[in-house]
Design goal:
The complex is a heterodimer. By secondary structure, chain A is an alpha/beta fold. Chain A is built from eleven helices and 14 strands. Chain A has a six-stranded mixed sheet, sandwiched between helices. In chain A, strands 2-1-4-5 form a four-stranded antiparallel sheet, covered by helices on one side. Chain A has a four-stranded antiparallel sheet with strand order 12-13-11-14, covered by helices on one side. The longest helix of chain A has 24 residues. Chain A is globular and about 80 Å long. The longest helix of chain B is centred in the middle third of the chain and has 35 residues. Chain B is globular. Chain B starts with a helix and ends with a helix. The relative contact order of chain B is 0.14. The chains are: A alpha/beta, B mainly alpha.
């Protein structure tokens, strides 16, 4: 049984005041996230990430399709007791103190009265807000708000945690803390579904990722699988300042510095490039395969989507 | 009542207290003490009438203003600030949220009215030197004010469940004004015929009848209030409140929280 199963979830909004016209925020989405996975939901701003999360949380209703979390329907209160959610740029009741806020959410989540105060205190300590327990949230910094946001999402020990842009707006220190918290959740066996457009975070944390753009799923899989589909490159460094003519025709980039030349060229040109260097009696210093990053895969998918959209628009005009 | 409704209500009450809603009591206390002192000096024989009239009208006005202006923000503010997201992603049903919010504000208004009632009776004691048997009817007038507040809170919440705060305030205030003239609307309906009569009668039943709950003048003149009026007003106000709340919940259940 997957932790999250999305079956053709689709959302179309009506926009405009007098003449309503449809705006598709999410095209039919099919996705499965297994238990214990850390799953990254990637896409640029406005791609449909938050819409998907709001649909899963029951905050907006789908135009069509359905989804199940822990094999239960989205409107099932029993399911909601077993999940946690951090919205994007969260804002909490700022007249409450950190302790009061978590206590309120613990009450709503059905945490038994006997456990509540202990759970709240432990959670405040876990997110580093022990000293701010009795400070009203209106005096919290953005980083502190994000931490209390994560605390409220995991307070009731949920099995599946949804985090919408959890690193957004945080400084490097704050991002590192959130990343560590997510790693802890992974070690505890929780399923974490988080949306982000910060690819290094996804690369560091996720077992699998999905890329979404303009409301459409562009790819899904383990990072190694996805990046292997993108053409790799190699870096060759040799002594001297000479660049053989044969290498110039290999679609390579050259960088001359001091008495060495660094060339970056497609992986399939590796053999030919080495032969050329040998033939020209140039002294090879190093050959390094450049790891294809998630960023390249992501950019390829996002650009592909834009190109398709442009083509469709041009076709429509023709 | 589910525990979650009680938690939401208690949080709403706490919000009102921390947002200094009860500070209106200071203005009320100043008004009542000023009136009591002034009336004692400038009027003769009608001190009680003036203090009761002024006190009960002020209680009603302060309560209605709080019911409208806090009520219209109860839902829209939570949507705008997205605080609702972390509530509804928990095992909280949308209707429980609305009902909890209602009870929270109703509780705030009840406490506010109770404290203002103490002020009214204190001012009355100051000008009359002692209580009379007929002063008990003041408590009934205050009770009717609370019933008005319940209806007004439900209406404000109803508008808040689909309209912007400004529009909700306009609608709620307009209904409050119209509701105070609902007896006239009923009179108008009785005088007309055909379709006009149907429409006027329909509107009279649909709109809140606040005039039936306003017994300030008769209480100020020490006229008794019949037990049947208390009974029917209670039933009317509770049924009307429940129906408006049900309509608000129905709309909110289907609303997309963008």
């Amino acid at each position: 049984m997957p932790a999250i199963e999305i079956l053709g979830l689709e959302k179309t909004y009506s926009v405009g005041f007098w003449r309503k016209r449809p705006k598709r925020a999410l095209l039919p989405l099919h996705l499965k996230v297994e238990k214990g996975e850390v799953f990254g939901f990637l896409g640029p701003n406005g791609a449909g990430k938050s819409t998907t999360l709001k649909l899963l949380m029951g905050l907006v209703f789908p135009t069509s399709g359905s989804a199940k979390i822990l094999d239960m329907d989205l409107d099932d209160p029993r399911m909601k007791a077993r999940i946690g959610f951090l919205p994007e740029q969260p804002y909490f009741y700022d007249y409450l103190t950190g302790q009061e806020l978590l206590n309120y959410y613990a009450q709503l989540s059905g945490v038994p009265g006997k456990e509540r105060s202990h759970r709240v205190a432990t959670m405040l300590e876990r997110v580093g807000l022990k000293d701010a327990a009795n400070v009203q949230l209106r005096k919290f910094s953005k980083g502190m708000l994000q931490r209390v946001g994560i605390a409220q999402a995991i307070l009731h020990n949920p099995e599946v945690v949804f985090l919408d842009e959890p690193m957004s707006g945080l400084d490097p220190m704050g991002r590192r803390e959130v990343r560590e918290l997510m790693e802890q959740l992974k070690h505890e066996g929780k399923t974490v579904f988080f949306s982000t457009h910060i690819l290094s975070d996804a690369e560091a944390l996720c077992d699998r990722v999905a890329v979404i753009n303009k409301g459409e799923l562009r790819g899904v899989g383990a990072i190694s699988e996805l990046t292997s589909t993108v053409q790799g490159k190699i870096e060759i460094v040799w002594r001297g300042t000479a660049i053989p003519a044969a290498l110039k025709n290999m679609n390579a980039e050259f960088f001359v510095s001091g008495d060495s030349v660094r060339a970056i060229l497609p992986e399939q040109q590796q053999e030919a490039a080495l032969e050329t260097l040998q033939r020209e009696r140039l002294h090879l210093i190093s050959l390094t395969p450049l790891r294809t990053s998630l960023e390249e895969y992501y950019l390829q998918k996002v650009q592909q989507a834009s190109a398709n959209a442009t083509q469709t628009a041009a076709g429509g005009r023709a | 009542m589910s525990a979650r409704i009680a938690y939401i209500a208690s949080n709403t009450f706490r919000e009102a207290v921390r947002d200094r809603v009860l500070y209106n009591l200071i203005a009320f206390a100043l008004l009542m003490s000023g009136a009591a002192i002034l009336v004692g000096q400038v009027s003769f024989g009608i001190e009680r009438l003036v203090v009761v009239n002024l006190g009960l009208s002020a209680v009603s006005l302060f309560g209605i203003v709080i019911a409208i202006f806090i009520g219209i923000g109860l839902v829209s503010k939570e949507i705008e600030k997205r605080t609702l997201y972390t509530v509804l992603s928990r095992p909280v049903q949308r209707w429980e949220f609305i009902v909890g919010k209602f009870f929270g504000l109703a509780g705030t208004l009840a406490v506010n009215t109770f404290l203002m009632a103490i002020g009214v009776f204190a001012a009355l004691l100051y000008v009359s030197r002692q209580f009379h048997g007929t002063d008990g009817w003041i408590a009934v007038a205050l009770y009717f004010s609370i019933l008005q507040f319940l209806m007004m809170t439900a209406l404000a919440l109803f508008f808040s469940s689909f309209a912007s705060p400004l529009m909700a305030a306009v609608f709620a205030f307009a209904l409050f004004v119209i509701g105070n003239f609902s007896e006239d609307l009923r009179g108008f309906a009785a005088m007309t015929h055909g379709l006009q009569r149907w429409l006027a009668t329909g509107a009279a039943y649909l709109l809140p009848n606040f005039s039936a709950l306003n017994i300030i003048t008769s209480v100020a003149h020490e006229q008794p209030v019949s037990s049947s009026l208390i009974f029917y007003n209670t039933i009317y106000a509770l049924v009307y409140t429940a129906m408006v709340m049900a309509a608000g919940v129905l709309i909110f259940q289907r609303r997309n929280l963008k």
